[in-house]
Write a structure and sequence with these properties.
Shape: globular
Order of helices and strands: HEHHHHEHHHHHHHHHEEEEHHEEEE
CATH superfamily: Cytochrome P450
Low-confidence stretches: 336-341
Helix content: 40-55%
Largest sheet: 3 strands, antiparallel
Number of strands: 10
Structural class: mainly alpha
Number of helices: 16
CATH architecture: Orthogonal Bundle
CATH topology: Cytochrome p450
Strand order of the largest sheet: 1-3-6
Strand content: 5-15%
Mean pLDDT: 90
Length: 426
């Protein structure tokens, strides 16, 4: 583990390979792990799809995201006006799987229960299967692989995903080819199938592996962030009224756009503070040194070494009262940098706050993730009350450098009368 003070000098070092670290942790050559082969291949379109096409299309996909959220929150959380307990993380996972799939796959697949089951469970099975595989000596892995339950489930997930996605991919290809044959531009795409087709430039790529790779990096991380945000609202109810007032003010004036979501500065600060106090990983910049690297203090990272860089989330030299949850901690920074670089923002990455990574390996889809979380949180804030259940403080578990909120954590919820005229009706 490398101390945080070296984060800035390592953030853009080309000698550090995230893909090599990923390939060592997972098993891209084995059936069922195809998404990791897709991500780690030298000519993978995943970076351009997420970093460029998805980010450039945020205004285009926002209406679809809002439409899906409007429908999904009612389906998931219901209309009960009385207080009742809910399994928060499980409900948020289903909500996020639908919203993410709406943008990555479009309708009708985003509401297909078989696909949603894959979207929710594939990542978990991947992590468990890889952990079990790493625990087995390399000599025995090829045999062990065929008998472990999680690896069998991975192969089943991939097979079912191909049955669901492949026909949709072929349909999109035919539409694009017909438009080109008629001398027209292919229709502007609003989902990742179309974006991958565009960036592939005629190459034969594994669209199903691509979709699963996007699902791996998007669904559970967003679920964790949004679940922690709701729990932090329950623990800090004084933040609810200012957040609701901001939503009404911004949406009534600007409507649903990428720009309006960026104007939710109180929400931005709240989410950033929630991420600071509940980092999914206490380290970042996981990578393998392809060549030896000499640090500024003269110490050396040898070639082939795996490294992680420690976070600074609870460092009192960085954050005043770091153990305290201060929902609007970052608003003053926003005011100080108004019109500047927005280095205070939720999606901003720096050595002090690596919740979305840092440097060349910062999460390429973080702008979409932030928009998705804000759209969902706007709806949840304006349509429901949440509070802790007496005597049921949500538990957090740790494993190595990771922290996990209890998947069975419960909170109390009730439907409320929502404000009309701000695009949340439904």
């Amino acid at each position: 583990m490398v101390p945080n003070r070296f984060a800035n000098e390592l953030r853009n070092r080309t000698e550090l390979s995230f893909n090599q670290a990923l390939a060592k942790d997972f098993f891209p050559s084995y059936p069922g792990f195809e998404p990791f082969k897709f991500i780690t291949s030298d000519d993978s379109p995943i970076q351009q799809t997420a970093r460029v096409r998805l980010t450039q299309s945020l205004n285009l996909v926002t209406p679809a995201l809002v439409e899906e959220t409007t429908a999904a929150v009612h389906d998931v959380f219901g209309e009960d006006l009385e207080w009742h307990a809910t399994l928060l993380k499980q409900d948020i996972l289903h909500l996020v799987a639908r919203l993410t799939s709406r943008v990555f796959l479009g309708k009708p697949l985003c509401r297909n229960e078989q696909w949603l089951d894959i979207a929710k469970n594939y990542t978990v099975d991947c992590v468990v299967a890889a952990q079990k595989m790493r625990a087995i000596p390399a000599l025995f892995r090829p045999v062990y692989y065929w008998f472990t339950t999680e690896c069998t489930r991975l192969r089943t997930h991939v097979r079912k995903a191909r049955e669901l996605i492949a026909p949709e991919v072929e349909l999109r290809k035919q539409r694009a080819q017909q438009a080109l044959a008629a001398g027209n531009k292919p229709p502007q795409t609003e989902d990742a199938i179309g974006w991958m087709y565009e960036v592939a430039h005629g190459r034969d790529i594994d669209y199903v592996a691509g979709q699963l790779s996007l699902t791996i990096v998007a669904v559970h991380t967003t679920t964790v962030a949004l679940t922690h945000a709701i729990v932090d609202l329950c623990k800090n109810p004084e933040a609810i009224v200012p957040l609701r007032e901001e939503v009404v003010t911004v949406l009534s004036k600007h409507g649903w756009t990428k720009g309006s979501l960026q104007k939710l500065r109180l929400m931005d600060s709240f989410l950033k503070e929630s991420q600071r106090c509940n980092p999914h990983e206490s380290t970042s910049m996981h990578s393998v040194a392809q060549r030896a690297i000499t640090l500024s203090d003269g110490s050396c990272i040898p070639a082939g070494a795996r490294i992680v860089v420690a976070g600074a989330y609870q460092d009192p030299s960085v954050y005043e009262n770091p153990e305290s949850f201060e929902p609007f901690r970052f608003v003053d920074d926003a005011d100080a940098e108004a019109g500047g670089t927005n280095s205070w923002g939720y999606v901003a990455t720096n050595a002090k706050h690596m919740g979305f990574g840092f440097g060349v390996h910062a999460c390429p889809g973080r702008f979409f993730a932030a928009n998705e979380i804000k759209v969902a949180l706007c709806h949840l804030l304006m349509k429901y009350d949440f509070e802790m259940i007496e005597g049921e403080e949500p538990k957090t578990f740790s494993f190595e450098t990771s922290r996990f909120l209890d998947p069975l954590c419960r909170v109390s919820i009730r439907r409320i009368e929502e404000v009309t005229g701000i695009g949340l009706d439904g």
